[in-house]
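Page 42, continued from yesterday. The earlier attempt failed because a stray header line got pasted into the input along with the sequence. Redoing it now with the clean sequence only.
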Amino acid sequence: MQAVEIRKDIYWVGAIDWSMRSFHGYQTGRGSTYNAYLILDDKITLIDTVKDVFAEELLERVSSVIDPARIDYIISSHVEPDHSGSIPFMAQHCPNAKIITSLPNGLKGLKAHYGELPYEGVKAGDTLDIGHRKLKFVTTPMLHWPDSMVTYCPDEKILFSNDAFGEHYATSARFDDENDLPTIFWEAKKYYANILMLYGRQAQAALKALDGLEIDMIATGHGIIWRSHVKEILEHYQEWSEGKLEDRAVVVFDSMWHSTETMARTITEAFQSRGIQASFYDIKENHLSDIMTDVLSSRYLAVGSPTINNQMMPTIAAFLCYLKGLAPKDHKAFAFGSYGWGGQSIALVEDELKAAGCEIILDKVRIANVPSSEQLQDLTEQIKNL
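This time it went through. Structure tokens are written below.
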């Protein structure tokens, strides 16, 4: 396990999790990385650690550059264990290191997780002089925990951003320009949609706090390091956090005997006939975290379910619970579905869409049993007349 030099005397020493496929219910089909960075200066500094199961990998990469016992500071940007999990292990191998964390929440969180260690708290705007370089701390609360902060090195124009601007993406190539650009932008969007969408206001505050900093490189906590497309990822975060929506539609459904599916196909085609690009998601075949990536920037959302035991399908209930938790802004939505006799599911779906903050633009569409061609034509006209 070798360190990777990303700038003179600054090294990536993290770990690659090739096998991870789920992160709190968010499907991570391309794995992830836990990024940590080592700065060689008068005071040797380690920025972040890795998930505890990769502690030996972190230690080996650090050891490929220096004796870990020489480390003076370990900066903990975020208490979540995928970044802080190896702090106790590294503290054993870095007996003289102070552990730098945010006040008050970082200090409180690390103590709760790992007990008493040689912590030192910092506030927004505090600076750590490590010799030829200085490190400035910018707190980013609720992006996405109360303790979160980023570290800026003005001498190198590097932002060590932890969870911000990252993506769950396992790769042996460390930089954006060494990877497939559409793929990493999609994964960055998926990361924002499934982890940070709820915190758009906090993301705006963080971007404002970073405004005016000269940033040549963003060294993230997950995924790749941005060096050639810094401007673009900052622009994307601005758009996503502002909740800018495109004239696109997302159609999500479950179906038992294809009647609700037939309605979903009709709705998708009707949107497309209006020149509105529409995505068609059978919840049985598509993971909700992929669907949410599309929902993030799509103006319209149609959700369909047949009725089972007087309820909506459990798969759709799970999707709507996930949607409500991420609190999308300014989406226009409606509910649809087929039913045999009761038909309660469609009203329940509509209620959950309202609870998620969506504007209902079409009264719940209910069709008994198998849709007729006339009913489907009427549904098409309703979409065209929205």
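Notes: The two ends are 58 Å apart (CA to CA).
Reminder to self: strip header lines before submitting.
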